Amino acid sequence: MSVEKFSLNDIELTMNESAVRHFKRQLATKTEQAVRLSVKESGCSGFMYVMDFVDQGEATDQSFNFDGVNVFVAKDALAILNGTEIELVTEGVNQSIQFNNPNAKAMCGCGESFTL
User: Fold this and answer.
1) Can you tell me the distance from the alpha carbon of 50 to that of 55, in angstroms, rounded to the nearest whole number?
2) How many independent structural domains does the chain possess?
3) CATH number of the domain that 30 lies in?
4) Given this model, what pLDDT does residue 47 score?
5) What is the mean pLDDT of residues 41-47?
6) Residues ≥6 apart with Cβ < 8 Å to 9
7) How far is CA 82 from the centre of its chain?
8) Could you read off the pLDDT of 49-69 as tens digits, one per residue?
9) Euclidean distance between CA atoms 8 and 40, whole angstroms
10) Quick one: pLDDT at residue 7?
11) 55: Cα separation from own chain's centroid
12) d(CA 87, CA 73)
């Protein structure tokens, strides 16, 4: 398995090859040209990942590029997402994007939110 790794100003994100292919396929069917990641306070554990397809990021977003997939990360999410690996995981016939975040101390039972 290949992993695309990108570090900028001591902020590091990685995306596995299957996730890169997934986002390329998704973006090919949309008018938007990039993915934007952020977090919000939500769920039973405190924070939730937010992923949107966008034309461009916000002025304060940090941009990353994974083999042609442009990813913008909200400024207030950079420290929370630092070191995170974004993976496409296949379980049976289902696929989902998972965030392997070393800063997350615990996940809620449903897997939708996490604590720091």
Assistant:
1) 16
2) 1
3) 2.60.300.12
4) 82
5) 73
6) 62
7) 11
8) 899 999 999 999 999 999 999
9) 23
10) 55
11) 16
12) 16
Residue labelled with tokens 């949309």 = 30
pTM of the model: 0.83
DSSP structure string for the chain? --EEEEEETTEEEEEEHHHHHHHHHHHHTSS--EEEEEEEEETTTEEEEEEEEESS--TT-EEEEETTEEEEE-GGGHHHHTTEEEEEEEETTEEEEEEE-TT--EE-TTSS-EE-
Q: Which domain holds residue 80?
A: 3-115
Residue type, 80: I
Q: What is the pLDDT of residues 90-111, one digit of tens each?
A: 999 999 999 988 887 656 555 5
| Distances 1 to 67, 73, 95 between C-alpha atoms, Å | 15, 24, 17
Pick from 95, 96, 82, 88: nearest CA to 69: 88
Each residue of 21-43: pLDDT tens digit? 999 999 999 999 999 999 998 76
Going by C-alpha positions, the residue among 23, 37, 13 that lies closest to residue 85 is 13
**Is 8's pLDDT higher than 70?**
no
User: How many other C-beta atoms are found inside a 10 Å radius of the C-beta of residue 85?
Assistant: 17
